[in-house]
Amino acid sequence: MVKLSVIVPFFNVQTYAPDTLRSLNANTREDFEFILVDDCSTDGTPGVLERAGRELPGAVLMRHERNGGLATARNTGLDAARGRYITFLDGDDWLAPGHYERLVGVIEDLDVDFVRTDHVQCTGRNRTVHRVPVGRRGVPLRPRDAILPAGRSTSVDYPYAWAGIYHRRLLDAGLLHFVHGLRTAEDRPWIWRLHREAESFAVAGLLGVFYRRGVATSLTQIGDVRQLDFIRAFDAVLAETARDAEAEKLLPKAVRTYCAIISHHLGSIERFEPAVARKLRSMSAAAMKRMPRELLEDALNSMDADRAARLRRLRRRAAANPVRTEVAA
Questions:
Q1: Hey, which residues does 6 pair with through a beta bridge?
Q2: How much is the pTM?
């Protein structure tokens, strides 16, 4: 039986893919498989992956005939995965040698549904350690208990799918697939669902994933319309959380996080193309209008002055120009 399935989407990362694949080669084991999903790359990435298919033990090559985005590429890998455990890596990131063997050892020892890990963020030559915002480590915990409090960074605010390992029973239960077609913030509905519906998890202080920031082709660096998928992602978080038995307890956190993300994008709106910036304003105003009014007011009152002011200005403008906002949306 395959012990671990590693799902790695690639899209136009020919500059970085060789580093990623070399790090996978330093993590091979006879019972590991590496599902390499080419999301219809148009540069030299397919050639790099073809070589990997010959040279990387356990490689499984898959290719999309049209680009579907990261969420869809990960879903393709999940549909093909045969492992008892599953993890993810992005096609421009890399691993420390032996990281996956250590990670499998942790989840087997603790016998939990999933394990979350710290990671190293790499921006140019700078290296910064980012830690899972959970204090207790190396012990089984209840994921639902790690969602709150609303006013502090918690485990659902650390959404990176590649920073952890997941038992196959989560896949069989329908908890590991991503919202189809999301091109950004795809991890947000996913991490909330895991914390609401899985039974156990743990945090391990393993530093084996190196996350590359500032890549020119990354959506975090591109101000086009795909960035606005965060609205659809957080709409899904709110809708799914509203159906939860503890919705009254959990929704304030979801609303507050949604507002913080909207304010973040509005605060850097100059990086968006003009038409996309207009759409960002109109879609954000509409999103706030959909939120429970009392929870929205509580969220705004709990935020720092600058972030709250951006959102209140947007609400006032939308109220003053409802027809134009509706047309723009």
A1: 34, 87
A2: 0.93
